[in-house]
Amino acid sequence: MDVEKLANNRGSGAGRGGVVPPVESRWRPGESGNPKGRPKGAKTSFEAIFERELSRRVAGDPKLDGNRRISRRTRIVREILDRVEAGDARMVKIVVDRLWPVAEAEAGQTQQPIVIVFDDQDREEFETLQRD
């Protein structure tokens, strides 16, 4: 590009880089800078991808579901609850602190206190988790 042309294009109205592009190469009103880009409404956000993957059907537990396929969401919930039943203190904390209130709110119920009985070892581990 001609150095004189560049020098004349500098100024307060200059865009990024301090140079205003020539009039013939500027976008026209209503013209996109990427006409073949992502279509409007395309589901490429993280939330949309995450939701699609949670809804994807996968093989269920043969004992519970036979040959049926279940959503990943169902499989994850089952895994969390299985770990709670097995006494995984971290999972108990997650369910009590985060998931239980959400489930109650979705069901339109008021939040009720939850009573969980621990033995001494579980109580110590749970109190340690609460401090963290």
Fold and architecture overview:
With 132 residues, the chain is mainly alpha-helical. Helix content is 50%, strand content 5%. It is built from six helices and two strands; from the N terminus they run H-H-E-H-E-H-H-H. The chain has helices at residues 3-9, 46-55, 62-65, 72-85, 89-107, 120-131; strands spanning 57-59, 69-71. Strands 1-2 form a two-stranded antiparallel sheet. It is elongated, with a radius of gyration of 29 Å. The mean pLDDT is 76.
> Which strands sit side by side, in order, in the main sheet?
1-2
User: Rough shape?
Assistant: elongated
Q: Tell me the β content.
A: under 5%
Over all CA atoms, what is the radius of gyration? 29 Å
SSE sequence, one letter per element: HHEHEHHH
What is the average of the pLDDT values? 76
Structural class assignment: mainly alpha
Helical content class: 40-55%
Tell me the major beta sheet: 2 strands, antiparallel
Low-confidence stretches: none
First CA to last CA: what distance?
Answer: 61 Å
Number of helices: 6
How many beta-strand runs? 2
Summarize the structure.
With 132 residues, this protein is mostly helical. The protein has helices at 3-9, 46-55, 62-65, 72-85, 89-107, 120-131, and strands at 57-59, 69-71.
Question: Which short descriptors sum up this protein?
Answer:
single chain; 132 residues; mainly alpha; two-stranded antiparallel ribbon; 6 helices; 2 strands; 5% strand; elongated
